[in-house]
Amino acid sequence: MNSDQITEALEITAKLLELHNENPFKIRSIAAAAYKLDKLRYDFNGKTPQEISAIEGVGKSIAAKINELLTTGTTKELTELLEKTPVGVVEMLGIKGLGPKKIRQLWLELDLESVGELLYACNENRLITLKGFGEKTQAAIKLNIEFKLANNNKFHYASIEKPINKLIEFILEQQKELQMAVVGQLARKCEVIDKIEILTDGEISFDISEFEKTIPLKINFILCEPAEFFYKYVELSSTPSHLEKINFAGLNDTEFFDDEEIYSALNLQYIEPELREGLREVDLALEHEIPKLIELEDLKGILHNHTTYSDGVHSLVEMSGYCKDLGYEYLGICDHSRSAFYAQGLPIEKVLEQQKEIDKLNLTFSNFTVLKGIESDILNDGSLDYPEEILKTFDFIVASVHSNLKMSEEKATERLIKAIENPYTSILGHPTGRLLLARPGYPINHKKVIDACAANKVSMELNAHPYRLDIDWRWIWYCLEKNVKVSINPDAHHKEGYHDMYYGVCAARKGMLSKELCLNALSLVEIKQEFKK
Q: Of 3.30.1360, 3.30.460, 3.30.70, 1.20.81, which CATH number belongs to 155-286?
């Protein structure tokens, strides 16, 4: 089992224990360990029980559960909990906003044992008869169920890409004569995947069923003749709208030796697979105006990261050292501001303590600098956390909304614009607050918000965490049109989170971002000037 699967097993164990009204101290211990491991993304491969129990927040009893999971794929406790819980009630635990205590109430008092029954009960107005439930709670549960049902059998790109690439690599090691490539949504690096398609020009001659068990979606292998491989590759990696716009159908009798030859034959600038959506890319290719898309190697620094000062897993020293080891020029530390009490947001004295530590740390580095930042909560009225005398001590500020997310478009837009207009705001963080497959973002008027960024020389964040990818890539074109720089930030809460920059770059490329308009493609000297506005 990998770290994600172990974390999930611990989370469901804690929830089921709470559902069955078990020992609250035990529940808190398991839930806290799951939370810690979720942030850490710990690699358990080859680790001894002693090494596992030494992980902060784990201890011997949780380590024993983890070892049991690694050995058997489950635990005796989890098996027993699942056996005495209806399958549908377990599924209810995945509904946002419904905790185990409320689900226990719905199960025992209304005899609801499935998500479908719960949705029907919401439509029948039955939940408002229960203590602690009202019309607003019932409406929110209904919306969350509908959102969950709409996203069934969909997965984040990041959770599918790696195992599929490993599978293809494994097959090609055994059958070197094959041509094989992902097509469809995976080729276009769509942020959410509900279909896996792999093109191959020959039959797979050995059993891959064990490999397929590690992948949550059915794989559709599409067989073609070797001579038509690249024609089929372009056809199957593109949306119908893209194919229609490039007049693709007339090329089916020609053999091509790569996909670039196909676009050349159509007198078009080469269109990368991730751009083949049928939006603006063909019109730009006709005029040879698609910019050189940003590459991971273009990024000079990593902004918006958290440490143990707030809710991060690794210390300032650890986060800085690893960033330097990865070859970056600078690191922007942006722990949570004081209003984010749930994330151990920094009171003023902690801000000053961290800034002193950064000053001392920078004296130890050559060719690397830690920038003093903060992820300031955008308060309900659009103002930033902290008084002006503290705001002006930072090198830069990422301004983000974390509370009161249930806003109208007018309220959300007004709140963001007021924050953008604050002279200390450098970057607007994850502008809609969305979590892919978990919650939709609050509605905003993207054009008004981006216009405000342009007027106030504020950059727009593309949060690179694969569960966010916010700002949506479909709005990057408007940022470019308005000369608003985009900052690809991992929002890293541990060292390994830096590697999420890759997914941010994938999304940025879909939006046609070039390094010229990427904030953190600037050198240290350039970005310091940029932050001075």
A: 3.30.460
Question: Roughly what angle, to the nearest 10 degrees, separates helices 100-110 and 3-19?
Answer: 50
Note the CATH architecture for domain 3-150: Orthogonal Bundle (1.10)
pLDDT for res 27:
94
Residue 57 has pLDDT above 80, yes or no: no
Q: Which amino acid is at 252?
A: N
Assign 218 a pLDDT band (cuts: 50, 70, 90): very high
Q: Domain locations in the chain?
A: 3-150, 155-286, 296-532
Largest CA distance in the chain: 71
Q: 489-531: per-residue pLDDT in tens?
A: 999 988 999 999 999 999 999 999 999 999 999 999 999 999 9
User: Which residue, among 151, 228, 142, has the nearest Cα to 192 in the 3D structure?
Assistant: 151
Between helix 3-19 and helix 24-40 the angle, nearest 10°, is 160
Task: Annotate 397-412 with three-state secondary structure.
Answer: EEEECCCCCCCCHHHH
pLDDT at 229: 96
The first and second tokens of residue 217, run together, are: 């979606």
What distance in Å separates the CA atoms of residue 233 and residue 487, rounded to the nearest whole number?
A: 32
pLDDT of residue 509: 98
Tens-digit pLDDT profile for residues 340-388: 987 889 999 999 999 999 999 999 999 999 999 999 999 999 999 999 9
Q: Of 397, 334, 327, 335, whose CA–CA distance to 368 is shortest?
A: 327
CATH of 296-532, one of 3.40.640.10, 1.10.3720.10, 3.20.20.140, 2.60.40.420: 3.20.20.140
- Nearest alpha carbon to residue 433 among 479, 471, 484, 466: 471
Please give the model's pTM, rounded to 2 decimal places. Answer: 0.84
Sign of CA dihedral 100, 104, 106, 112: positive
